[in-house]
Design goal:
The chain is mainly alpha-helical. The chain has three domains: 308 residues, no CATH class; 86 residues, no CATH class; 95 residues, no CATH class. Helices cover 62% and strands 5% of the residues. The strands form two sheets. The protein has a five-stranded mixed beta sheet, with helices on both faces. A two-stranded antiparallel sheet has the order 1-2.
Length: 551
């Protein structure tokens, strides 16, 4: 690392091999920390795994299923990729984790390529933007999360690279990238890919300085690329809709997208929510005063093409997502590269790194460490969730000690400061995964309960789940069939018809499991979960109907 820093001091540019090695090394370290610290977290990751597992078991690659019902919430690309890896390597736990990592890594290298084309005389912009992405905690978390957002981020970057190539180099290769991006994005997460790419295309006459008198021809080619992507999507969606039935057909073509865009049934938050959580989603960028000075300090330079491009990429999408009712942190991942490019393009305006930059990064670590220490010593941490009492107090000392080291590692060198941001992010991610999630035990690691359910299934005993079952145990336990989903009205009839059956029930509060004597009990997310025999359900739940309720 010291050699790399020394080289950068002399020439501010990493050599290509050095840069690639640095990026892959940091990304792999963050992935290793995540894999060591956690298993697949319910309900999202376990749900997507179970959809892929159902596809594997029944060899139905056309219509995804969950609980024996067509699963219309997401297109099939992620499930296909999981099954492709299982076909090559055999069914395993590690391959699905690599999928978001590979898309994350691919996105970083695409950002570097985009920057090199927009700042051909300032190649360090792409390198700085890439390092900034690796320094961001949200980016690091979702680079190992089995979700769809790193896939859509990759296809967004690929499509935007296609726009840049088609406009600046006038190569048909750009339209090919666009067509692949639209097809991949539509198959990954639906029409959101259009929202990610279209604003930049519509604003192209503003940001693109390339002399181009044939805008009509370019937009026609852009639309053709989109239509090719749609055609590829329809080659799956039409036969899938026919096979899946009327309701599935309605959902994949309109229902889910319309509901999320207009009147979200989940994650409904106010329009300013993203601004409220900016310190979290922009950590540690948010806490660097010199970055904020770039915004409020007038520049003698005019607004160049690259900066206008980055603004046109970031702000329209950010505003659009702010007005969409359903909001989640990871929805913004595809525009993180644009924000990184904005900062990186202005990085040379930072004359030196001041003492308050170092202090500002250390401050949130000290605050979080202090809060955790207070909650631990006052035992108030036990009130937040059942598993929090198991969190080691050493987390507090690690964060506070890390903050101290971050502060005393002072350097006016801007590149060393970038690497310091990366180290800060590694400290935060290690604390999150190794210091917190790893110590939650069975609350977020479902392997033990899933093995218990597999043993029950192997004995040919019926299984049921009281409440909304999201496939949490299907893949983790390698179950051949998901548990029967029950409502409160169905519970007692089912145990009567299945006297040797077992029922999975979740509980709020602090249930008295010593008195209940379940076959299995454990923490489960922010509550508890237990497995009862049919006779135990009659014994425990009938006298206390408010105890056993669906969640």
């Amino acid at each position: 690392m010291a050699d790399i820093i020394a080289h950068y001091k002399k020439d501010i540019m990493f050599k290509r091999n050095q840069f690639n090695f640095l990026i892959i090394s940091i990304a792999s370290l963050l992935l290793g920390i995540a894999i060591t610290g956690r298993h697949y977290i319910p309900p999202d990751e376990t749900r997507y795994l179970s959809v892929a597992w159902d596809m594997w078991l029944h060899h139905d690659y056309l219509v995804p299923h969950l609980n024996h019902l067509p699963y219309s919430h997401k297109p099939p690309l992620l499930f296909w990729l999981i099954n492709l890896g299982w076909f090559i390597f055999g069914v395993n736990d590690w391959w699905p984790r690599l999928i978001p990592f590979l898309f994350s890594l691919g996105s970083i290298f695409l950002v570097k390529k985009i920057a090199d084309k927009l700042w051909p005389k300032d190649r360090d912009v792409g390198q700085i933007a890439s390092i900034l992405l690796l320094a961001n905690s949200v980016w690091a978390v979702y680079s190992s999360a089995l979700m769809f957002d790193m896939m859509i981020t990759f296809f967004t970057c690929l499509g935007i690279l296609g726009i840049v190539i088609s406009l600046k180099e006038k190569k048909s290769q750009g339209y090919l990238y666009l067509a692949i991006a639209f097809a991949g994005g539509l198959l990954a997460k639906g029409p959101t890919i259009l929202l990610q790419i279209l604003p930049l295309a519509l604003l192209a006459p503003w940001w693109c300085e390339q002399k181009n008198s044939t805008w009509k021809l370019w937009y026609r080619s852009f639309v053709i690329s989109f239509l090719i992507g749609v055609a590829i999507l329809l080659s799956w969606a039409i036969p899938a809709g026919i096979s899946g039935g009327d309701q599935y057909q309605h959902d994949i073509f309109w229902g889910q997208t319309a509901n999320r865009m207009v009147n979200s049934f989940a994650h409904n938050r106010p329009q300013w929510w993203y601004l409220e959580i900016a310190p979290i989603i922009m950590f540690p960028w948010f806490f660097v005063p010199s970055f904020w000075k770039l915004i409020f300090q007038k520049s003698s330079k005019k607004l160049n093409e690259g900066l206008k491009f980055s603004i046109a990429w970031f702000f329209p999408v950010f505003i659009a997502f702010s007005f969409i009712s359903g909001k989640q942190v990871h929805y913004l991942l595809p525009i993180y590269p644009a924000l990184a490019l904005i900062i990186a393009s202005q990085f040379d305006r930072i004359k030196k790194i001041a003492w308050y930059d170092h202090a500002a990064i250390a401050l949130p670590l000290i605050i979080i460490g202090g809060v955790l220490y207070y909650l631990n010593v006052t035992h108030r941490i036990n009130d937040l969730a059942p598993w929090m009492k198991s969190l080691p107090i050493q987390n507090s000392f690690l964060l506070i000690s890390g903050a101290f080291l971050v502060f005393i590692w002072k350097s006016k060198d801007k590149i060393q400061f970038l690497l310091k941001l990366v180290v800060t992010n590694i400290l935060v991610i290690a604390t999150l995964f190794l210091g917190v999630i790893h110590h939650t035990g069975n609350a977020y690691d479902l392997r033990e309960i899933s093995r218990t359910l597999k043993n029950i299934e192997d004995k040919n005993l019926s299984l049921a789940y009281l409440g909304n079952y999201a496939g949490q145990f299907d893949f983790i336990g390698r179950l051949d069939n998901p548990p029967k989903v029950l409502t409160n009205l169905e519970l007692f009839n089912w145990v009567k018809e299945n006297p040797e059956g077992r029922v999975i029930i979740t509980f709020d509060g602090e249930p008295d499991f010593e008195k209940m004597r379940p076959e299995f009990n454990s923490w489960y997310r922010g509550s508890h979960i237990a497995i009862f025999s049919s006779s135990d359900v009659d014994r425990i739940c009938k006298p206390q109907p408010n105890l056993c309720i669906e969640h």
